[in-house]
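Students often ask why inverse folding is considered easier than folding. One informal answer: many sequences map to the same fold, so there is more than one right answer. In these notes we will look at a single instance of the problem. The structure comes first.
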C-alpha cells in the first residue's frame, strides 16, 4: 500500500510504502516475517524505495500466527474530526506567487500556503489542496479586473474561509461555440460578445482553420462559422484571440470555447 506524505512531513514531499517482508534479502524486517514494514520514496516514477528503520514489536506470544495491523491514510480534515476537534480559523499565510493574469489564463496556486487552527490547540501549518483539504472558488478567467479568490476548508461539517486577490488584465469577453448540420455536413460556429467600453479586435482558430472577426464594437456580439466538409466531427474547441487598449495599455486575451461532437450522416 502506498500513501502520500502529509504536508510538513519530516521527510519532506514524498510517499510511504507498506509491504510484507516475505522475500529473501528484504531491506527492512526479516525474511518471511509477514508483517507490514515501511519504505520511503520522493519519486514514485523512480521505483526506488528506502527502508525506514523502526522498532518492530515483540511477537513472542504469537509464534506461528501471521501478524498484520491496519494502516489508514487520513486527510487533515479526517484527522481533526477523529480527534473531535473543530475549526477555529483558516488563514492564507502566503499568497500565490502569481497574482496578475491575462484574460483566459488558469489560476496558478504555486507557493500558496494555507493554515488551519483547531479547537484542541492543534495547528496545520500547511493544508493540502483537494479532497480533505482546502478548495478555491471565485476566480473567473474570462472577466478582467480585480477578483477575490476564496479559500474554503471544511471539518466535520463546519466550513471556514480565507481569501486573496488577483488581477486579471485584458478585454472582457464572452465566448461560446456549437455545432449544427448544414445538409449532411457539420458547421462549427463561434460567438463573441464584447463587454468592454472600447472596440476589441478578435480572431478565432479551430481545427478547421482561422477566421478574423475584425473589430467588435462595445456591447456587441459577432459570430463566425467554420465549414468542416465532414459528416461528423469529434468534440473540440475554438480558441478566440483578442486585443485592444485599456487605460492606455495594450492588452491581449486568449479564450477557449468548447463544442460537442456532432454527426450529420
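Output (designed amino acids):
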Amino acid at each position: 500500500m502506498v500513501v502520500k506524505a502529509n504536508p510538513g512531513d519530516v521527510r519532506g514531499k514524498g510517499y510511504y510504502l507498506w509491504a510484507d517482508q516475505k522475500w529473501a534479502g528484504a531491506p527492512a524486517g526479516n525474511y518471511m516475517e509477514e508483517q507490514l514494514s515501511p519504505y520511503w520514496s520522493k519519486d514514485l516514477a523512480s521505483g526506488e524505495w528506502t527502508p525506514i528503520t523502526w522498532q518492530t514489536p515483540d511477537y513472542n506470544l504469537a509464534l506461528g500466527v501471521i501478524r498484520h495491523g491496519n494502516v489508514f491514510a487520513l486527510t487533515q480534515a479526517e484527522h481533526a474530526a477523529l480527534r473531535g476537534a473543530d475549526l477555529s480559523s483558516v488563514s492564507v499565510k502566503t499568497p500565490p506567487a502569481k497574482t496578475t493574469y491575462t484574460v483566459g489564463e488558469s489560476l496558478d496556486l504555486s507557493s500558496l500556503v494555507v493554515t488551519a487552527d483547531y479547537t484542541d490547540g492543534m495547528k496545520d501549518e500547511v493544508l493540502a489542496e483537494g479532497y480533505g483539504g482546502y478548495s478555491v472558488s471565485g476566480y473567473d478567467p474570462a472577466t478582467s479586473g480585480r477578483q477575490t479568490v476564496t479559500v474554503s476548508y471544511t471539518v466535520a461539517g463546519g466550513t471556514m474561509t480565507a481569501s486573496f486577490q488577483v488581477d486579471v488584465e485584458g478585454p472582457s469577453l464572452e465566448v461560446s461555440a456549437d455545432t449544427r448540420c448544414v445538409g449532411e455536413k457539420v458547421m462549427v460556429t463561434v460567438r463573441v460578445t464584447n463587454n468592454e467600453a472600447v472596440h476589441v479586435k478578435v480572431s478565432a482558430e479551430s481545427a478547421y482553420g482561422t477566421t478574423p472577426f475584425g473589430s467588435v464594437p462595445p456591447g456587441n456580439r459577432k459570430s463566425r462559422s467554420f465549414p468542416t466538409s465532414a459528416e461528423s466531427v469529434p468534440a473540440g474547441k475554438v480558441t478566440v484571440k483578442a486585443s485592444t487598449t485599456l487605460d492606455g495599455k495594450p492588452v491581449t486575451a486568449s479564450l477557449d470555447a468548447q463544442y460537442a461532437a456532432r454527426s450529420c450522416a
